[in-house]
Amino acid sequence: MDLFLTPRTQALILRYEHDRPVAENTTRDVLKQSGFEGDRDVSSFVLHPYNKDTLVRAQREQDWGWAFDENVRFAEALLARERELGLDLPVHLFGCAPLVLMLHLTWCLSRRRLYVYQQSREDGSWSLKADRSQPATPEPFFAVEGLPAARQGGRGHVALIVEVTQSIRDTALAEFQARHPSELLATVYLRPVKGPSERAVQNAGDISRAAEQFRAVLDALHDKVEGAESVLMAMDCPGSLAAAMGTAINAQTQHPLWLHHFNPEQRKYLAVHQISPRPRLASAREESLTPKQWQEKWKEIQDELKKVSGVHRQLVEWLGQPEQQQLVERLGGRILLDSQIDTTPAMERTPLFRYQAGSWKFPVDLLEGFRTLRQRLGSTEDWEECIRLLLVHEAYHVQQLGPTSYGYSGSGRTGWVLEAVDYDADAVSVEVALAWRKRHRAETAQPPSQALAAIIWNALESVRVFEQERPIQTLPERRLRRYLIWLFHACRLSTASLARESHPGLERVFIEIAGLPFFPDPHESYSQQRVRLEGLDKNDTLVLALYYRRELIRMEKPGWVRELLLTLRRWDERSREQSQDEVKLLFEALFDQHRSLLTPGRSPST
């Protein structure tokens, strides 16, 4: 995303054109009329140029993710460019977009000087409507109904309906009740004190006051409705007010906010995006850092990338040797061998491996995760093995014709299928890692079962680089199963009974836990279930089911399942040796009840 800024740039005009074009000349004239410099050293940028053939309003609710991601990428690109030039630009926003996208965009831009302009429905003229520096009116703008007066318990959701231009409560509430029939803990309405109307917002002071009240309501809901999994929000208001409310959202201290867009053809509200404390690349760079501190941090990130590039280079050189031809064929050809790593860390979201271009691009937050991983492992060899596991895993995905940088979008909706795809990629990466050990670290390749166990333990540590939470309190359902699958293999291969096995197998195993509470995953733009690993003390319905070598195994002791989940949750709070020992003891109890799980199997295969 190219932003044409220079060290002389004083401000940025942002034209947001989802619904219709916004003329640049018009915006510059409006700035002058509002008392700002409109031409000299003022840059202009179009975020999502208008295209009548790709209107987001016409798309299904699960297909809106790209539009929200576009907002995030713009905000990150702007911040990166400002860092580079030493700027802190005010943004003048001219938005023609759905309310949910206006609100989300300003949430992404909330920590800066922001001016929002509103277009008149009568004559098409623009005027400044939202200015964070504008004092709020002393009188309340909103009348607030339904806000709990005291703390209340329960698990579920809160309905938040903002009706400024017209009343929408009947339609919105019916939709929320249909989706969550027994899970609405409270229903809160925000409407102008004088009632909804086209002229409810009179000036910028009204909008400033409305944003203050909106923030206060979200804060109060977080304080008084502790068991709310999310706030379900529907709104009908001017775009400038939606934008102002976006600046009032603090995802770190408020409940996740589900944004709902009204589809007039279906006459219903669609759940299109959830705002939650998802780490953005911008959050990996503390805004409190001084320029000198940022330079030092940037050097550390670049050094990390050099280390990753070195591992890649050694892996490619080894795989290029004639004796590794069989492994290369297992990987689907020379995709990995012909690839190169971009030597500049990514400051915005980007595909990790663009195989058609033969290039890897590592983002800042992932490189910082690699550095944390190396510190936890305490071994250069183990860390390098983790990087190789990742590289081989991603390269193998290419031959699977699906979960790559070009075709993975939405695949999370088919969790069981994607889990099987990941299993094969994991198994191949473990196979390559064992071959590397035999060639370069022969003393760590024997006995084979112990070597495979050590590799899998490293793989489990490396997967945690991608987790959004520390300690882990929730997990995507399919990632939890992925952890369980490889914990089973690592613990099984670590047992003394398999130490003499010359060809230990990694046959496919199916594991799941029944009885866990589910909720929509706030960290993904597609529909995916997430499970809680916390608050399970009184849950007596937990059952682990395992299917391996045509045998169905059940562990119906909720206490055993809770201990396993607790160990996974507090993994990072203990040394890796302590965490491994805890989970080994738990699986030893399972193996003691079902000793057939430890019988030797057939030769390794995937």
Distinctive features:
606 residues, alpha/beta, six-stranded mixed beta sheet, five-stranded mixed beta sheet, 16 helices, 18% strand
Write structural notes for this entry.
The chain is 40% helix and 18% strand. By secondary structure, it is an alpha/beta fold. The strands form five sheets. Strands 6-8-7-9-10-11 form a six-stranded mixed β-sheet, sandwiched between helices. Strands 2-1-3-4-5 form a five-stranded mixed β-sheet, sandwiched between helices. Helix 3 runs parallel beside helix 6 (239-246) and helix 5 (204-224) crosses helix 6 (239-246). The longest helix has 29 residues, at 291-319.
Short recap of the structure:
With 606 residues, the chain is an alpha/beta fold. The protein has helices spanning 24-33, 65-85, 99-108, 169-179, 204-224, 239-246, 281-284, 291-319, 325-330, 364-377, 380-399, 415-440, 448-463, 477-493, 558-569, 576-593, and strands spanning 11-16, 42-47, 91-95, 114-119, 126-131, 142-145, 156-163, 184-192, 228-236, 257-263, 268-275, 340-341, 353-354, 359-360, 474-476, 509-514, 518-520, 529-532, 543-548, 551-555. α8 (291-319) crosses α11 (380-399), α12 packs parallel to α14 and α15 packs antiparallel against α16.
Gyration radius, rounded: 27 Å
Shape: globular
Helix content: 40-55%
Major beta sheet, strand line-up:
6-8-7-9-10-11
Which regions are unreliable across 5 or more consecutive residues at pLDDT < 50? 279-287
What does the average pLDDT come to? 87
Number of helices: 16
Structural class: alpha/beta
